[in-house]
From TrEMBL:
This is Sphingolipid delta(4)-desaturase. The lineage of its organism: Eukaryota, Fungi, Dikarya, Ascomycota, Pezizomycotina. It is found in: Membrane. Signal peptide: none annotated. GO terms for cellular component: membrane. InterPro entries: DES1/DES2 (IPR011388), FA_desaturase_dom (IPR005804), Sphingolipid_d4-desaturase_N (IPR013866). It catalyses: an N-acylsphinganine + 2 Fe(II)-[cytochrome b5] + O2 + 2 H(+) = an N-acylsphing-4-enine + 2 Fe(III)-[cytochrome b5] + 2 H2O. Delta(4)-fatty-acid desaturase which introduces a double bond at the 4-position in the long-chain base (LCB) of ceramides. It is an enzyme of class 1 (oxidoreductase).
């Protein structure tokens, strides 16, 4: 069964083609919390799927070893050569995209039962990326879950500056090529979070690892890790998930002013993908399932979909992440404007906030909450 929520969309009053150049606004809560309660009511057994996945730590260890091994083998290979680039694109980018999503899993406390063990393991998983990332990613990502689509809180949303200046085929191609940089820099410009001891530890461990790598293998090995990270978030098939997850690919209908009242249903704002690339990406393609139950690990998301199939089968899906990138660039009806947004104050009068405690920021508290609530 599909969830339908009341919404309003925005655009200039003349309803011309330019009216599509604005966000899709809704004044209702994000749909995942509602669907989670509906699924638990219909299938209470899904709560047994929550909890850490022991396999995650072994996959992380294997991928980290692979990347360090490749960095070592390429220590004498010229950076501007086909063997170096193809290894970085085919092996390195796929491996580092896997690492990004391992950190995503770990941020939900799904590798170990101890929150602190998850924080330390995320710092270890960070090593092949080349730059400190895990400590900063976690609070921003969990805010994305707490405040999906909320203007000023969800840093997964493009800024108005991005949407205006990249609103063309070339602009969208630029965004897709350098989207890893947008995702790295945008959060600091939208929502400022305090620098904690965990951030400092992440920084020190990463810089120490990089220094040892350069000292023992040379700069080419370090360049391999950096190039792998860049390509992982560029024009790479696995990078399609960044766009596929929350950009609206349904064609907008009858846009209306932001403050108007509309009875139309908001387009689905989260899309799932069930293709083979999930094998390399911790099943992140099952994205509706993940947002509905962030405390269910990657290995059990297919089981969730199987149990609650009547909730997921009616939802629109993507069949190819590569096609998502191509369509995003070339389809004039899809752009950085194609995101559902909500203000912090909902129609009910409730304020959406990302209330972080010191314990949550330091990683000492379980912030998924789903298992306890379930």
């Amino acid at each position: 069964m599909a969830l339908v929520v009341e919404t309003t969309t925005i655009g200039p009053n003349d309803a011309s083609k330019d009216s599509l150049n604005d966000w899709i606004w809704t004044y209702q809560e994000e749909p995942h919390r509602t669907r989670r309660h509906q699924i638990i009511k219909a299938h209470p057994e899904v709560t047994k799927l929550c909890g850490p996945e022991p396999l995650t730590k072994y996959v992380v260890l294997g991928v980290t070893s692979l990347q360090i091994g490749c960095a070592y083998l390429l220590r004498s290979t010229p950076i501007f050569s086909w063997p170096f680039f193809l290894t970085a694109y085919i092996v390195g980018a796929t491996a580092n995209q896997n690492t990004f999503l391992a950190i995503h899993e770990i941020s939900h406390n799904l590798a170990f039962r101890s929150a602190y063990a998850n924080r330390l393991f995320a710092i270890f998983a960070n090593l092949p990326i080349g730059l400190p990332y895990s400590a900063a990613f976690r609070p921003y990502h969990l805010t994305h879950h707490k405040a999906l689509g909320v203007d000023g809180l969800d840093t997964d949303l493009p800024t108005k500056f991005e949407a205006i200046f990249l609103d063309s085929v070339l602009g969208k191609a630029f965004f897709c090529t350098f989207q890893i940089l947008f995702y790295a820099l945008r959060p600091m410009m939208v929502l400022t979070l305090p620098f904690t001891g965990l951030h400092f530890l992440n920084l020190v461990v990463q810089l120490g690892f990089d220094a040892i790598l350069v000292w023992s293998c040379g700069w080419n090995s370090f360049a391999y890790l950096i190039m792998s990270s860049f390509l992982a978030g560029s024009l790479h098939p696995c990078a399609g998930h960044f766009i596929a997850e929350h950009y609206v690919f349904e064609k907008p209908v009858n846009p209306s002013p932001k403050n108007a009242v509309s009875g139309e249903a908001v387009p689905v704002e989260t899309y799932s993908y069930y293709g083979c690339l999930n094998f390399f990406t911790y099943n992140v393609g099952l994205h509706n399932e993940h947002h509905d139950f962030p405390a269910i690990p990657w290995t059990r998301l297919p089981k969730l979909r199987e149990i609650a199939s009547e909730f997921y089968e009616p939802l629109p899906t993507h069949t190819s992440w590569s096609w998502v990138i191509w369509q995003f660039i070339w389809d004039s009806d899809v752009s950085l404007w194609s995101r559902v947004k909500r203000e912090q104050q909902l129609k009910s009068g409730k304020m959406v906030e990302a209330d972080w405690t010191k314990e949550e920021l330091e990683g000492e508290a379980d912030t998924t909450g789903d298992k306890k609530k379930a």
